Amino acid sequence: QVQLVESGGGLVQAGGSLRLSCAASGSIFSIDAMGWYRQAPGKQRELVASITSRGSTRSADSVKGRFTISRDNAKNTVYLQMNSLKPEDTAVYYCKVVLPALGYVEVWGQGTLVTVSS
């Protein structure tokens, strides 16, 4: 089994920064894409940013220039550096990894709450 443990969420004032981490553990042979998603109250879950095994990234227009995704393959960990946070960034943030050795199954983290006060 594979588990994802997220950390780094919390309460921050608008304009502040947070860094989320998501560490994968368990029967991992390799990880393909890794990504961060978020879900605000009453809204659908949406992609925030993703990164391939080769380091190619993409991000939502709403966070471009403010959020940066990165990964440490040796630690099976993905990060999301969030700067210039806005109240509309308030959401539960989830990480997701894709495991090619298990048939490209998607594994989700439990979520971490980010609250940005105005």
SSE layout:
Layout: E1 2-7, E2 10-13, E3 18-26, E4 34-39, E5 46-51, E6 57-59, E7 67-72, E8 77-82, E9 91-99, E10 105-108, E11 112-117
Parallel strand pairs: 2-11
Antiparallel strand pairs: 1-3, 3-8, 4-5, 4-9, 5-6, 7-8, 9-10, 9-11
Could you explain how this protein is built, in words?
The structure is a single chain. The termini are far apart. The protein is mainly beta and 118 residues long. Helix content is 0%, strand content 55%. It has strands at 2-7, 10-13, 18-26, 34-39, 46-51, 57-59, 67-72, 77-82, 91-99, 105-108, 112-117. Strands 2, 4, 5, 6, 9, 10 and 11 form a 7-stranded mixed sheet that branches. A 4-stranded antiparallel sheet has the order 1-3-8-7, with no helix packed on it. The protein is globular and about 45 Å long.
Low-confidence sequence ranges: none
The helix content, as a percent range, equals under 10%
What oligomeric assembly is this protein in? single chain
> Which sequence of SSEs, written as H and E, runs from N to C?
EEEEEEEEEEE
- General shape: globular
Mean pLDDT: 95
Number of strands: 11
Estimated share of beta-strand residues:
over 45%
Q: What structural class do the secondary elements suggest?
A: mainly beta
Number of helices: 0
Radius of gyration: 14 Å
- What's the main sheet like? 7 strands, mixed
- Could you tell me how far the N terminus lies from the C terminus, measured between alpha carbons in angstroms? 40 Å
